[in-house]
Amino acid sequence: MARRILAVGLVLLVVLAGCQSVSFSGDTTTDVETTQQADQPTTTATNGSTDESEFDFADPESDVLGWENGLWYNESIGVSVEDGLNDSERNATIDRAMARVEQIRGIEFEKRVPVEVISRDKYREQYADTGDASDALRTFDDTKFEALFLVGENEDSIEVQESNRGENVLGFYTPRDDRIVIISESSTPTIEETTLGHELVHALQFRNFDANFSSPTRDASNAHNGLIEGEARFVDTRYSNNCGANWSCVSPQAGGGGGGGDLHLGIYIMKYFPYSDGPGFVEHFYEQDGWSGVADLYSNPAKTSEQVAQPEKYGTDQPADVRLPDRSSAGWERVTVDGRAPYGEVGVGGLTAMLAYPAYHEGRQGVVLNPQEFLNIEDGSVDRSDPFDYTTTPVEGWDGERMWIYESDDGETAYTWRIAWDSQRDAKQFAETYRNLLQYWGAEQRDNGVWRIPEGESEFADAFRVTVSGDTVTIVNAPTVDQLGDVHARQ
Fold this sequence. Notes:
- With 491 residues, this protein is of the alpha+beta class.
- It folds into two domains: 2-217 and 228-260, no CATH class; 333-344 and 370-487, no CATH class.
- It has helices spanning 2-17, 87-105, 120-126, 135-147, 157-168, 193-208, 218-242, 265-271, 273-296, 305-309, 347-356, 371-374, 424-440, 484-487, and strands at residues 34-35, 67-68, 71-72, 115-119, 171-174, 179-184, 333-334, 377-378, 381-382, 398-407, 413-421, 444-445, 450-452, 463-469, 472-478.
- The strands form four sheets. It has a seven-stranded antiparallel beta sheet, with helices on one face. It has a four-stranded mixed beta sheet with strand order 1-5-6-4.
- Strand 10 and strand 11 (413-421) form a beta hairpin.
- The longest helix is centred in the middle third of the chain and has 25 residues, at 218-242.
């Protein structure tokens, strides 16, 4: 019963507070769409509020910040959402939203951003399916998500990710086409204005900065999106706080809005990282040097998600150069994917998701981390603007990693995973928690650091060898105990 209550609580958080980020099957963010989260966090910051009765709404002689196509940022428009938005209402909503983002962010839109409104069904049909993934990519991702104990060996990890996106994306900006797509939940298409505002920030980012980062691993993607999504959420928080208090804003009738469905909570936690910790990262530099300090980050983005979660480590705590020689034999070979790093790297976001997921997995008893250890709780409620603690004790000392994926001649998969830590104590602490994770999924301990999850015990039946050497933890996985040495021979 307790597990079900916890799961329901997090699902309510998802429905009310945010939607899963889009990150197509690979870990690269080059020329892919970014998504807006439904979260409307409550803070006190506001920008540009002016009493309409004291404001001169005359059109300026030239384009200025806070004015677009005949509308000021604080100007009222005649819009009715009950019957959807007609062309004139939609255009007015877009123009005013552009003016509002300008007013907050301080960057002028040099040209209009095309905006398309589509149904969720159309989104699933046209954008959520990545069925053209290569065999190597599917093998790599399936094994990586199996290593994280998030997707079982008989499931397709890419399909699970697609399902998450199809249920929860509210809108996205695609830099390739320089346009915004908004998903409408109603049969009469309308726009959630704060969703539009968030995506307009992305348009400014990609038009004005070198934001099209190459992110060859999941951790690099989370780090780079910590800036991109963090700034967008930092701005849309200010936008949201003005709605109702200082501005009239367009919003559909209550009851729509993504969220829920067959959401995989473990993958959700991993991919929510940029939206949870990114705003704090951006705010850290905004408070130091204003918007110029934020702009400077685009020429030197964070290297790891750890630097986003702990901004004081940015530029000072570089990740360790983790290496592990290939000592495989008996037909085992490393799997590589074109356009991506030859190894996986999940960072603090992936490790937190791996250890937190059992708290919401209904198929087994017990937990590895109690929710109080990875949820940010204030006054008895989860913090809607920053729900997850990605620096919880078992992962806070992360210092770098590499995961290498292997495939045998007969199509079986395995992996080696070396994780560096700040100290020997951190390494031992993580190893202890990881062994608890193995036990949660049904593992039995053998000799010399070897564990085995028997067939039929869980969807992760495999053999594991866990060793600690100084400040590093090395995990070797194989289908059977006898094959561990074939995947990675002991020295």
